[in-house]
Amino acid sequence: MEKNILETFQPNIMERLGEIYWRDDRYRKTLEREKEAAERLKETFTEEQMAMVEQYHIAISSTMGICELLAYKQGMKDMASILK
Fold this sequence. Notes:
This protein is 93% helix and 0% strand. It has 84 residues and is mainly alpha-helical.
């Protein structure tokens, strides 16, 4: 599968994954726990501390988003090679 085809599919990939996540009870429960923990942090930390936590969370989320996309793309490549 050519790289440009994967890039073309990328928006659809992300949309599809979002749909799959929202249908998963474990994901929704975990997301709710994440939100509750964030609220406790906001109640406890100073603005400066909270800003550092948010920067850290953004960095982790960005890294995991890239990993997720790379794993999905690799799965598509593996599937294409199996079908050959």
